[in-house]
Design goal:
The protein is of the alpha/beta class. It has a domain at 13-211. Helices cover 52% and strands 11% of the residues. It contains 9 helices and 6 strands. It has a 6-stranded mixed beta sheet, sandwiched between helices. Helix 3 links the parallel strand 3 (74-81) and strand 4 (115-121). Helix 8 (213-287) crosses helix 9.
């Protein structure tokens, strides 16, 4: 019996890059969907960072984002990120800035092209502001007047797919693409692609890529790398929690000890004072034949 081969879907960043590199029709469809534009308006999309498929990537930490120029008029950077990145906001700004800084020596500022950084994330970037598709630009904080259209950062949150499917005003093509990214098996992907030519062609491309053992090895290597990152993150988080717990316990014990000492001294002082007053009252009562009330009055108690 033939062993079933592992499925590498579009959330594997190597497969993601490979599919978009091999199938321009799929690339155009994804671009049009993410940028909310008519696919017919895409005259040219030039991939700026192709990879040699099957060749081992130098440095597993290499970011397999997709960089391209659209219609010679826009720079697009698409990054797929499955595991939560603590500094993703800062990183996205840095990647946008690097892509935007495209002037050659002697060129003037008018040559700078609008630059888009698009993150396809399988985690929620802002827990207190979850959104299926968000778009961020520089604008006046009072009246939202746009400072420049040359900076745009878009974020597609795949974890918000189920919530987005309940809404009637969400882009159906975006829902389809999000479902494609979330597909866990080849069967699920084929079911989603059924009846839509561009997605059926995408499945064919993925199958062909998966038949290449070298490409499969790179997909596996990327998955292992991402898994190691997640393990290290979780280990660091657990270690941090343990250190925090120990420090908290020690601090609590120290505070408790100080409070206990202070309370003990206060109680002891009060008891000592009460005992002294009692002895003085008794002494006056005996020596001067006074009542307790008169003795206490004489002592100012």
């Amino acid at each position: 019996m033939t062993e079933k081969r592992k499925f590498y879907g579009m959330r594997n960043d190597y497969m993601f890059h490979a599919v978009l590199q091999k199938n321009e029709e799929v690339l155009r469809n994804l671009l049009a969907t993410l940028l909310e534009m008519d696919e017919a308006d895409i005259v040219d999309c030039h991939l700026e960072n192709p990879i040699e498929l099957g060749k081992e990537i130098e440095g597993k930490e290499c970011i397999l984002d997709v960089k391209l120029t659209l219609n010679n008029a826009k720079i697009i950077n698409i990054e797929l990120q499955v595991y939560k990145q603590t500094y993703w906001v800062e990183r996205s700004l840095l990647y946008w800035a690097r892509a935007f800084d495209s002037l050659k020596s002697g060129e003037d500022y008018s040559k700078l092209l609008p630059t888009y950084h698009i993150g396809i994330l399988d985690f929620t970037l802002f827990e207190d502001h979850p959104k299926f598709m968000a778009q961020y630009q520089i604008m006046d904080v009072e009246d939202q007047f746009l400072y420049s259209d040359k900076l745009c950062i878009k974020v597609l949150d795949l974890t918000q797919l189920e919530e987005a499917q309940k809404q009637s005003n969400v882009n159906k093509k975006l829902l389809k693409w999000a479902s494609i990214f979330k597909a866990e098996t080849l069967e699920e992907l084929e079911q989603l692609a059924n009846g839509e030519e561009v997605f059926e062609k995408m499945v064919v491309t993925m199958k062909k890529l998966s038949e290449d053992e070298k490409i499969r090895m790179q997909c596996e290597a990327r998955e292992d790398y991402e898994r190691c990152l997640l393990s290290e993150f979780n280990a660091g988080k657990r270690e941090g929690e343990e250190i925090g717990e120990k420090r908290g316990r020690a601090m609590g014990e120290e505070i408790g000890e100080k409070r206990g000492r202070a309370m003990g001294e206060e109680i002891g002082e009060k008891r000592g004072k009460d005992e002294t007053e009692k002895k003085l009252v008794q002494h006056l009562m005996q020596s001067m034949k006074l009542s307790e009330a008169d003795a206490r009055k004489m002592l100012g108690l």
